[in-house]
């Protein structure tokens, strides 16, 4: 039976806890680029209600780059470079040489073509590699990782920070943007109860959508948070920026766009995947408004040489 022919009753099952599951959800790697293009303008920042998605995207990128202390001639490594927007913005604004890493062949080809055109016009150097960060063997002055951290999984978080620390030169900066969860100790201290429904949604989010481990809290040691992983690798965390309310606004926009293109989305990805992404977008917007999840930028600085 094809994905398209599955009825709603056939597609959804219920586990023993009463939590609906999605039997035929396709992974991010399996989904065609057009599916995401139907609804997802790659921004997690919405500085003003009158801003367009394009302006919001650039504002989010500018916020991240401004924390990196970029200077002309530096080498910027973009881990999970996507369609190259952050790389090109950094090259044009700061005159840096940028290297992007992506596991996607489509993104690799797209960014490569953009960069070839820039070389012809004499712009700052840029390169893109079809590889993971584990395979990168050069040095960099700055690293940005925007939206690519979440699928790594808990067993690789420490390895990523160690890689970043090892790759950066002295006085280097890592700018990490990630989705983070709440800390249960903080919830209890504020009289907020964490329920089984919360557990089920976060499990759905991390396993079905992100394909990684549980969401990290921004800080703390038990459970271990983002800042703890960074500090254990040798970094000093010099900045933390929350974007939760703006994230919720962007999620609302994405939900409306996906609803509008429902038929085409189901044709491309199947009904289970469509339903799962609607649940992801609406659920995350609700959790972001209630402060239960957030999108945060972490500025992590590597110490300089001893004087």
What features would you describe in this structure?
With 307 residues, the protein is of the alpha/beta class. It has one domain: 3-Layer(aba) Sandwich (Rossmann fold). The chain contains twelve helices and nine strands. A seven-stranded mixed beta sheet has the order 5-4-3-6-7-9-8. Strand 3, helix 4 and strand 4 form a beta-alpha-beta unit. Helix 3 crosses helix 4, helix 8 crosses helix 12 and helix 11 crosses helix 12. The N terminus is likely disordered.
Find the CATH topology.
Rossmann fold
| Low-confidence spans | 1-18, 42-51
Number of helices: 12
Give the overall pLDDT as a whole number: 81
Q: Rg, please? A: 20 Å
What percentage of the residues does DSSP assign to strands (E)?
A: 15-25%
Distance between the termini: 69 Å
SSE inventory with pairings:
Blueprint: H1 8-11, E1 12-14, E2 20-22, H2 33-37, H3 53-66, E3 75-79, H4 85-94, E4 97-102, H5 105-120, E5 126-130, E6 140-146, H6 154-167, E7 168-181, H7 184-189, H8 196-210, H9 226-232, E8 236-242, H10 244-260, H11 262-269, H12 271-289, E9 293-301
Parallel strand pairs: 3-4, 3-6, 4-5, 6-7
Antiparallel strand pairs: 1-2, 7-9, 8-9
Helix pairs in contact: 3-4, 8-12, 10-12, 11-12
């Amino acid at each position: 039976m094809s994905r398209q022919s599955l009825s709603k009753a056939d597609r959804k099952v219920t586990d023993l806890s009463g939590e609906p599951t999605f039997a035929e959800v396709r992974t991010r790697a399996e989904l065609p680029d057009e599916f995401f293009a139907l609804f997802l303008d790659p921004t997690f920042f919405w500085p003003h209600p009158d801003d367009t998605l394009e302006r919001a995207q650039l504002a989010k990128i500018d916020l991240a780059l401004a924390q990196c202390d970029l200077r002309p001639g530096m080498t910027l490594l973009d881990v999970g470079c996507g369609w190259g927007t952050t790389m090109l913005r950094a090259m044009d604004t700061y005159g840096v040489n940028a290297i992007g890493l992506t596991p996607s062949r489509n993104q690799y080809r797209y960014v490569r073509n953009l960069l070839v055109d820039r070389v012809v016009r004499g712009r700052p150097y840029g390169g893109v590699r079809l590889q993971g960060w584990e395979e990168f063997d050069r040095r960099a002055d700055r690293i940005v990782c925007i939206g690519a951290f979440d699928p790594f999984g808990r067993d690789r978080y420490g390895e990523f920070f160690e890689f970043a620390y090892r790759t950066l030169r002295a006085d280097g900066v890592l700018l990490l943007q990630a989705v983070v969860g709440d800390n249960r100790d903080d919830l209890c201290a504020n009289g907020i109860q964490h329920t089984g429904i919360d557990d089920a949604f976060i499990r759905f989010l991390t396993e079905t959508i992100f394909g990684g481990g549980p969401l990290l809290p921004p800080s703390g040691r038990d459970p271990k948070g983002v800042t703890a992983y960074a500090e254990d690798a040798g970094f000093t965390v010099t900045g933390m920026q929350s974007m939760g309310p703006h994230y919720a606004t962007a999620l609302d926009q994405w939900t409306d766009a996906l609803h509008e293109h429902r038929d085409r989305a189901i044709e491309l990805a199947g009904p289970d995947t469509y339903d799962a992404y609607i649940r992801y977008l609406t659920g995350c917007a609700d959790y972001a408004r209630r402060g239960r999840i957030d999108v945060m930028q972490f500025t992590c600085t590597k110490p300089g040489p001893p004087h």
